[in-house]
Amino acid sequence: MKSFLSFFLSILLCFSAFSQENDFVSFGLEINPRISMQRFEQPLLATSGISHGGSISGVAYMNLAPGIEIKTGLNVSLIRIDQTDYSFAFPCDVTSSGFGNPKASWIHTKSNQFYVGMPISLKMNLSKKKSHPYISLGGEALVHLASVQNIVAHECGASEGTKIQNEIRENAPILFIANLGLGYECIRENKTDLYMGLVAGHTLNPTYSEISNFLNLDDGFNNSRILTLGIVSGIRFK
Fold first, then answer.
1. pTM attached to this predicted model
2. Alpha-carbon distance 123 to 161, whole Å?
3. How far is CA 180 from CA 96, 123, 134, in A?
4. Which of 21, 60, 92, 195 is the most exposed place for a label (fewest CB within 10 A)?
5. pLDDT value at 6 more than 70
6. DSSP secondary structure string, 52-76?
C-alpha cells in the first residue's frame, strides 16, 4: 500500500510541475456527504438500514481536450453500516423437524468504516457555455483503515440483546466502487470555480472478506454490496 501511495503522489507531483508552464492541471477541494445501504444476494437473510457518511478530498484535474478532463486525487472516507443479520442460527432456532422461524433470532450491527480513497473519473461538459452542466464516470479504490463496530445478538426473539465483543465479519481490505455523477460547474472570473452535483456509487466486490457463522451456513453476506448516493460540492483553483 505504501509503495502504491508513493507512486500515486509522484505522478501528481509530476503533473503539478508540468502545469507550471502549461494550463494542463488544476487542483481543488471537495466534500461529499452521502447515504449508503447494503444490497444482499439473499435479502431474506439480512436487511439494511440507510446510514449517513461522507468523504473529504483533495482533487486534481487534467485536461485531455476542450470540455473533457480526468479527475483524480486522495480522500478520507467514512461509510456507515446498519444491518440486521438473520443468517446466524442459535440452538433454540433448531427443532426436531428442522429450522423454525428463520427470523426468530438476529444480530444487529452498526459500524463506522474508515477508508483512504483513490478515485479516478472522466468528466465531460454537456455544454460549451462558460458555466455548464457536466457528467462524470469513473471508479474508486477504498483502502480500509479501521472500523468501529457495535454488534448485538438477539437470541430466540429476545428484545434485549447481548453485546458481542469480537468482530464476526472481517472487512475487505480494499473496496472498489463504480461511480456515476451529474452536476453543474460555475466558472468565475477570479479563476476559482465552484461545482455541485449528485454522485451514485456501487461497490464491485463483496463488503466482507471472511465470514464467521455458527453453523457454517452459505449466507447472503458472501456477496453483499454497498450502494451510495452523495451530494458533492467543491472549489477548484486554476
1. 0.80
2. 48
3. 51, 10, 11
4. 21
5. no
6. EEEEEEEEEEEEEETTEEEEEEEEE
